[in-house]
Amino acid sequence: MGEKKEIKVWYDEEGDYLEVIFDDEKISVFHDTDNDAVMEMLDEKGNVVGFSVMAVSKLSKKEPILAHLYGAAA
Q: Which of 29, 67, 68, 72 has the greatest number of CB atoms lying within 10 Å of its CB?
C-alpha cells in the first residue's frame, strides 16, 4: 500500500482561498501555474510541496479546474 502521507487542507472563507500542503516541513515559495486561480508551492529544490486555489466560490460547479504543477521540471 505504500507509505502513509498526511496532507493539510485549509480553507479561508473570508479570503475565499484554499490551500493544500503535502510537506510543510520544507521552506516553500509560490509560483504561477497555467491557471490563474492556482499557485504551486515549491521547496528550495523545486519540488512541489502543495498548491493553493484562489476565488474558490467563483469556480464552476460543473467542470473541474485544470492546472499543471511542474515543480523542478518547469
A: 67
